Amino acid sequence: MKTTHALAAILVASTALLTGCASTSTSTPYNNAGYNNNGYNNNVSSGYGTIDSIQVVRGQGGTNGTGAVVGGLVGALVGNQVGSGSGRTLATVAGAVGGAAVGNNVEANRNANGQDMYQLNIRMDNGEIRSVTQDSVYDLRVGNRVRLVDGRVYRY
User: Fold this and answer.
1) Pairing assessment for the beta strands 46-58 and 116-124 based on DSSP bridges
2) Full-model pTM
């Protein structure tokens, strides 16, 4: 019974430690302001301009810690089936840590798949250049006159 309580405490501590290390960075290599984890522009603004360029960019695969927690639990359960005594405890901890790392990577890869985004560089009528990242461009082409409304670009 004492081993079970120690095992549970180690599992909770290692899971909390690993999920605390999860990255929630909101910066992108394109523009460090105005983007959330999904790569969408959050700037609330409107105006008119012309599209200077359109580039395909890969959205970032973020994690919220769910994969690490589930992986840690599965790893701990598998590790607990190995050995006996202190060897079992060590295997359980190693399984929890390894499972959490694998689970976090699986979640990041799953979130990144199929997330091609489009970065539109727009020369506004006042001369300002704005970069907007959105999930589709529909009928937008370089040179089109556009309207920027709440962080989305629409043909004008």
Assistant:
1) antiparallel
2) 0.43
